[in-house]
Give the backbone structure.
Amino acid sequence: MIDPGTLLLKYRGLDGRDRRLKIGLVVDRSRGPEWVQSLTNLLRNVTLFEIHLFIANGASLRTPARSSALAERLHAWSRRHADPFGEVDLDLGEPLPQAVKAVIRARELDLLCWIADEMPEGPCSDLARFGVITIRLGEASIEPLYWQEVIDRQLLSRATILWHSTTFEKARVLRTAELATKQGWFFTRNADDCLVAISRMIATVGLDLLADAPSWMARQLEIPEQNCHRPGQRRYPSNVASAGFLARQAWRSLSLRAEVRGRLPKWFVAIRRDSSRHYANTGKFSPEALEEVPLAPGSQMADPFLVTHANKTWLFFEDVPAGTTKGRLSCMEAGVEGVGFSEPTVALEENYHLSYPCVVSSAGEFFLIPESCKARTIQLFRATRFPFEWRMETTLMDDFSAVD
């Protein structure tokens, strides 16, 4: 189940509202993917929402065209380890009405979320006060969803929510979540994080509407509208593509085993000075020209954070000394003439684990918010001698476990 707690932190001032947001949710049937059940439970657990469920009356496109016996076997094998689209009883309560437009209009909804495969045509502005949300999951033409990203070795997998203010044929892209593609034999795992992101984004839209609906509408109307193409029948990858996937995964497994033989896995940080090779410029990840940041033997480093000040660039990071598991925050200067990096200096250490050094500046001063989940706090530190010395300024939240 998805915890709504972190979503609600930003909207704590809404608790005293008398009126709840009426959200309609259109699903394919009373049995469906487990992620739909998680989405329904998430929305129901937000007391500011009033949920109305409907069953779509069209044929689902989830059943793929059979085109590859090998792909079907690989899919069945991967599903034994992770099956986010496997059907379960959604436990939706009483028998649900069909998603006929007249029935939906009668509920006087504020927002309609159409997550069923088959989407209707024509106007939708009269179905809900603030329009209709639909979703786009990965490469929609391939079964199962999010396998194509693994086959193509894409760095990121995407989940998008669309907003229809007038018709189902036109939409605006509200939000897109980009998650690291999970490579490996069990490719069905790649959908997990994307489906959680979809659920959280839908809930966030509802909370934004409760907070300030006029401002929300004004912001979304500034987004360019685009034609919304209806997805066709999904298909399995071909036998050739499936065999290529098998070959690449086998080679990847053998290469990784050979690379780590005799070595223990550890966290490290690498830097690339040639910005033309960055993912933002190329659209794909490449390990070329990455140089590992040096650290003492046996130590580990993670969560890099770069800060530029007084013509110097400082690298803050989580530092786990050799033989320990408790992190502390250290820093080193990057770009030092002749050696690349200065010797690391401990910037902040407590008697509990610290990580993810989020450093920000304000009015000429520097502040630091580390991850301090083990202390069940969110703390704010102020630099007394940047970047080496910090003092605790205040506790932003107490008795709360927040992770990076």
Summary: The chain has a mean pLDDT of 84. The longest strand covers residues 170-180. DSSP finds eight helices and 20 strands in the chain.
